[in-house]
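Milestone M4 deliverable, item 7.
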Amino acid sequence: MVTYVAGPLKSTVDYILVRQEDKAKVRNVKVISSEECVTKHKLLVMDMWFKATKSWHRKFEPRERVWKLKEEKTCEEYRCMVGDKVEEAKWKGLCVNDHWQQMKGITTESAQDICGMTKGPCRHKETWWWNEEVAEAVREKKIKTPK
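Output delivered:
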């Protein structure tokens, strides 16, 4: 394949670099002699085959509804429960990492018991536009639309 022509001189000086693992994907390499991409250099074209990948969706993992701790009543219940569990826990003879794991367990269990867990993925990705006016319009439309 000649990629460089200067008068009587013809040479292959243009290359396409491909990683070792991608060499198997190369299907065809050709020179288009009618196209000059740079003076005296012919256009070198490579066809590669790529398998279409499926879009990866993150599996839903339920989370604690910690935002409920902003409510005064819920926050007080949480404090009481954590305090009770800390008093009941056996702390003597444990190393620092075991202390940490035990405290982590107490706080997460209390949050799950008091606040609960999320049930499904977020339905509204962008909610900056969602307000009471929009919610009311959606409610009215649902009422008017026959099922």
